[in-house]
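Quick check before the chapter quiz. The format below is the same one you will see on the exam, so make sure you can read both the input and the output lines.
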Amino acid sequence: MEKLVYLLWAPPGSGPADHARIAQALTPGLLALEPRAVWLQVDDADAQVPVPLPPPEGEHVPMGVVSIWLDRYDDRGPYEALLREQCDRIAGYLVLKSMYTDYGGNRHSAPRDWPDGVRSPGVTMVTLMERPDRLSAEEWVTHWHTVQSPVSESMQPRIRYVRNEVVRAVTPGAPPYRGIVEECWPSAEHVTDPMLFYCAGGDADLMQSNLREMLTSVTGFLDLDRIRSITMSEYLLKTR
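Here is the expected output.
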């Protein structure tokens, strides 16, 4: 089984309500194609949360992400046709998925208890990552997986963390992202309040210490100006 991740762009000038309509239009068609599983994340009205590192002002960022599991990625054509019907632009990637932490996998959340198709609680932050030229592919993945993942898990209140390592792009002109991260948080406040974001419990010194450690880890394998993060609502439309 193989996982495909598609980034979706709405027409320039579209807003959260337009994004929600696109997601609603995509949902029945995606399910009708009968993938093994399909997830949808969308930058809708329930996900208007400032991110710690916002994109440059005026940049047209993706409004949605669709994850599709197929027996063979060769069979992706009907899915891409559907996405192109509804979206201004798409970029698709074949990925290796690691479920680093799932709902109920740490002290920050209970196991998932809501059905497929219902909005997941909290807010999801999707982060798109490029590999800096200064690092080899092996160095980059090793730092991401063995340094950054445990550092962030130890000090942040994520309730779900999915790593997607890009194998290759499957659509022409896709941006050169090498990693796509899906991080779910208990609430918008856990993203916007540094005390909550770094599990500092009101301790300003601990918050600053965690912030420094996080920045050291992040800048060890990423250039901050090449990271793009977008907050979204998560819908697990069909799970295996």
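If your answer matched, good. The first strand starts at residue 2 and ends at 9.
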